[in-house]
Design a protein that fits this description.
121 residues, mainly beta, 10 strands
């Protein structure tokens, strides 16, 4: 089953210029595959897919990904994790400013992700 951060508003005095995605495969034996889609809104109604890729995360390893979203009013990250034990893959998403500081109201931890039926195209 896929999951999403939901739409995160990125306006105000502390807007994000980047998204950091931390992906950790905590399984000691099996790898997992993670497909991710990143969408942005540069106005209130225009949703655009700006990044889409698939990663193989080996057992007991992690990857930290960084994406530019500067100038967009909102964003959303969707994931689909597959493999022998997909529940052992933990994903956290953080909005960061231009200095790399985490914006507290723009963090979505694994337990806060919402399940969805499928990734959007």
């Amino acid at each position: 089953m896929a999951s999403t951060t939901g739409i995160i508003t990125n306006t105000g005095t502390s807007s994000a210029s980047n998204i950091v995605i931390n992906i950790s495969n905590d399984n000691l034996s099996f790898s997992s595959n993670v497909v991710y889609h990143i969408y942005v809104w540069n106005s209130l109604v225009s949703k655009a897919l700006i990044y889409s890729s698939s990663l193989n995360i080996n057992a007991n390893t992690s990857q930290i990904l960084n994406f530019n979203i500067l100038g967009n009013t909102s964003y959303e990250v969707q994931f689909l994790v597959t493999g022998t034990v997909p529940t052992d893959t933990v994903i956290n998403v953080f909005g960061t400013d231009s200095s790399g500081n985490v914006i507290p109201h723009q963090k979505v931890l694994q337990e806060e992700l919402t399940q969805i039926a499928q990734l959007n195209p």
